[in-house]
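Researcher: Checking consistency across runs. Here is Ubiquitin-related domain-containing protein again:
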Amino acid sequence: IQIFVKTMWGSTILLNTRASATVGSLYGEIDSRSGHAPSEVRLIYGGKALEKDRMLYEYGISGNETLDSVMRLLGGMQPSGLLETYNL
């Protein structure tokens, strides 16, 4: 089946795969074509983030579908000391 992956930068990557392929295998293809490591991106389909260990058909992806590739947001930060200063 053909899958289209739309990146945040407006480009589209065409992937040829099987419906029984895992989402994780798509991450490897995207990495080799875009240079973005799997840990940096998430794939979204129908408003839902796709889990790497599930197969495409489990999400109803049967071909000629478009997935969105978005950057993974990294959260958290080190305490700055302001909390201690102001007893927050």
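Researcher: Does this match what you'd expect to see?
Model: One thing to look at in this run: DSSP finds two helices and five strands in the chain.
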